[in-house]
Design a protein that fits this description.
5 strands, alpha+beta, two-stranded antiparallel ribbon, 3-stranded antiparallel sheet
Amino acid sequence: MKAEGDFSYEPDLVLELSSADDPDAADYKKLKKGNRIKKLASNQIHIANVKKCRVRALNGQMFSWPDKGNYKPGDYTKVGDCFKPYFDFLNIGGEHLAFDASRNSQQLMSDAGKRDFFQQQRRREIACEEIKGSLSCVWSAATGKDAAVKTEVINALFGTHSWTAVEKMNPDVLEDGAKVCVRMKNLAISEMPQDREALLRLVKRAQHEIREERENPLGDLGVTAQEAATASEQLPF
């Protein structure tokens, strides 16, 4: 029986049982004719090889016991004593604690670390929803040409066709991609790309506009990036 495949749970103790002839119990008799030796009878020995055990003291151990024609009181102890470390581990008849309500996992993760993890995960989810929503506003079909267009845009932005890989990316990268997708949606509504080259040009245009706005946040006021940098150097603080 396959211990790991035929059980619903992983067992604590796995034994491989076998038997072999006991050479010490063989009865030999020398025949009258010639010098041949003939084995007339042999007892068996039972072997238990510990393949795996949660108790390290038993891991890899091998035990053997000679076969007996009848049972005598106390014979079981010779076998039981071999596995005493495992029985001690089970704590049979002792006190067991099913659930310890006095302990928790706070020591494994600080509050600050937990907040940061969930915040980043939340940012990923929002950015991914923004990306899918913006693209679906223009290319609404889930199959066919629209699906191919959305896959092409994802690959152009993130360098992969796998949406699972995109969902695991850094939140900053996803948020930048979401901004580009929103800009692409606005541009595509007025000028829908007709082929792959036009689509890629639309991606680059949206990226360029986002980059320009980031480098020159005062552009809407008619101030160039150079003028903004000069003005910043003249400020008294």
